[in-house]
What we know:
The structure is a single chain. With 215 residues, the chain is an alpha/beta fold. The chain has 2 domains: 1-110, Rossmann fold, CATH 3.40.50.170; 115-215, Rossmann fold. 33% of the residues lie in helices and 23% in strands. The chain is built from 6 helices and 10 strands; from the N terminus they run βαβαββαββαβαββαβ. The protein has helices at residues 18-28, 48-55, 74-87, 103-108, 129-135, 171-194; strands spanning 7-13, 35-42, 60-62, 71-72, 91-94, 100-101, 113-117, 140-147, 157-164, 207-208. An 8-stranded mixed sheet has the order 3-2-1-5-7-8-9-10, with helices on both faces. A two-stranded parallel sheet has the order 4-6. Helix 2 (48-55) links the parallel strand 2 and strand 3. Helix 1 (18-28) runs parallel beside helix 6 (171-194). The chain starts with 6 loop residues before the first strand and ends in a 7-residue tail after the last strand. The mean pLDDT is 96. 5-O-phosphono-beta-D-ribofuranosylamine binds next to helix 1, strand 7 and helix 6.
Amino acid sequence: xFFKRKHRLVILISGRGSNMKxxxxxxxxxxxxxxxxxxxxxxxxxxxxxxxxxxxGIRAKYISAAPYKTKLEGKAEERYIATIKRWKPDLIIxxxxxxxxxxxxxxxxxxxxxxxxxxxxPAYPGLHTHERVLAxxxxxxxxxxxxxNETVDGGKRIIQAxxxxxxxxxxxxxxxRILEKEHKILPYAIHLLLEKKISYDTITEPLQWRExxxx
Length: 215
Ligand code: GRF
C-alpha cells in the first residue's frame, strides 16, 4: 500500500492565534486535506494561541527572540531556523507574528513563508493599518496573503479579500470585519499552494476572494 506523505505546516504567532485556529480547523475538517500542523512557535510566552494549539494536541513552543523587540535576528533567528528545519515544513505561516523577518531566515526557506496582513497591499503595509485607513477616509479595505520577502509586507501577493469601510467604523469594528475574511483567505491560500493549484512562479496578480467560493 502506498501512503502519500502528509503536507507539513509550521505556524508562527505572537498573540491571540485566531488565524492559527482557522488553519487548524481547516486541516481538521478536510478543507486542507492530507496535511498536519507539525508545530506552532510564539515569541511571546503568554500568547493565547499557544494554549489553543496545545488543546488541539499540537506541539506549541515559546522561543525567545530577545534581545530584540521587533525583529528576528542573531542567536534568536538561529534558534528559530534550527527548530523549524527539524520540523521539515512545506510551508511556514506567519499568522500574527509581530516581528520583522530578516534575510537569513527568508533564505533558509525560499518561497515557503507566507504572511497575512490586514490591508489591501501594497496599500498600508506595517502597523496600525486600520487607524491609517480610517484617517485617510478610504471607502474600502481588506486583507492580503502574500509571500514573505525582504521588504516588510512587500512580497508577491497571493490572495486578497475586500470589505467596505463604514462611516461609523472604529479601528476595532473595521478590524473585526477584516478578521472574518482573514480566517477564510489564509486557509484557502494554504490549500491552493499545497495542492499546487498555484505556486510562487505562476502567480502574477493576487486572486480576489469571492464569498460564493464557500471554502
Ligand atoms: C491579524 O489581524 C493579522 O492580519 C495580523 O495580526 C493579527 C493576528 O490576529 N498580522 P490573530 O493572532 O490571528 O488572532
